[in-house]
Amino acid sequence: MEFTRAEVCVTAASDTWRDAGEVLAHAVGTVPAAGARLARLTHSPDLVLSDGEAFLMSELPPLGQTAAAGGVIEAWLPYRRVFDVLQTGRRQSMMGASQLDRYGNQNISAIGDWRRPSRQLIGVRGAPGNTVNHRTDYWVPNHSTRVFVESVDVVSGVGNDRARTGGPAARRFHRLGVVVTDLAVLDYGPDGRLRIRSVHPGVTVRQVQECTGFPLDGTGAGETRAPTAEELRLIREVVDPGSLRSREVPG
User: Fold this and answer.
1) 202: Cα within 13 Å, side-chain hemisphere
2) Of 51, 64, 142, 152, which residue is most buried, by most CB within 10 angstroms?
3) Confidence grade of residue 64 (pLDDT, cut at 50, 70, 90)
4) Is residue 243 part of a domain?
5) DSSP run (H or E) holding 160
6) CA 223, CA 118: separation in Å to the nearest integer?
7) What does the pLDDT look like over 151-162, one tens digit per residue?
8) Taking 80 as the threshold, does the pLDDT of residue 126 lie above it?
9) This protein's superkingdom (predicted)?
10) Is residue 177 situated within a structural domain?
11) CATH of the domain at 132
C-alpha cells in the first residue's frame, strides 16, 4: 500500500508513546499531535489526550479542532493543573526545536547572541521543566544544518551533557527519547550523543549526515517502519482527514 513521507513521520511519532502507560501526551506540531492520537487508537490505549486547550478527551474530534467541534470529554485540566502533572512525571512530551546540538540541548528561545539576538523566538517556555521531569522527544519537520548545530545559541531544553553535570536534581528524571525528523529517526548512544537509528524510506544515511551540522554515527541504521494498512486508515479517515500532516511534511 502506498504511503507518504508525512505518514511515515506520524507513525514514527506515534511509536514514541508506545508502552507509555497512563501519561498525559504533550504534542507540539501537527505530526506529533497526529502521532499521539494514532498511539491512543492503536498500541497505547491508556494514553491521556487533550483537545489542545483545557479538556481531556476519550474520543477526539479531527485534528485541528477542539472539543467544541465534537468528541467525548472525560475531564477538565486547566493550565495551572498541568504543572502538577508535569512535576509528578506523568507526562511525555514531543516538542519542536529551532536548534539541537549533538547532546540534545534544544533552543526555542532566540538566534544569535542572547544579549542582542538576530531573531527572537517563543522563549524557553516549558522546555527546562519538561526535560528534567519526564521523557522528552523532539520533532523537526525540516532536517537541516540550520537546526542541527554544533552549539545552540540558547539552552532551552536540557541536553544529556548538561544533565550529567547539573547534579542530582537535573539527572534524576532527565530522559531524552528520540528525534523524529522528515528524513530519519535519531536516538542517543551510551555517550549521550545523537546517532541515526533509522532513515525513512527513500532516504540514505549520507543524506541525513549532509543535512546535519555535526557527525552522526549511522552504523547499523535501519529503515523507519512503514505504517500498516490499519494505521493508514486511521490517519486518513479518523485522525487527520483534512491532511494537515501534508502541510508540515509536503510531498
Assistant:
1) 10
2) 152
3) confident
4) no
5) helix 160-165
6) 38
7) 999 999 999 999
8) yes
9) Bacteria
10) yes
11) 3.40.1080.10
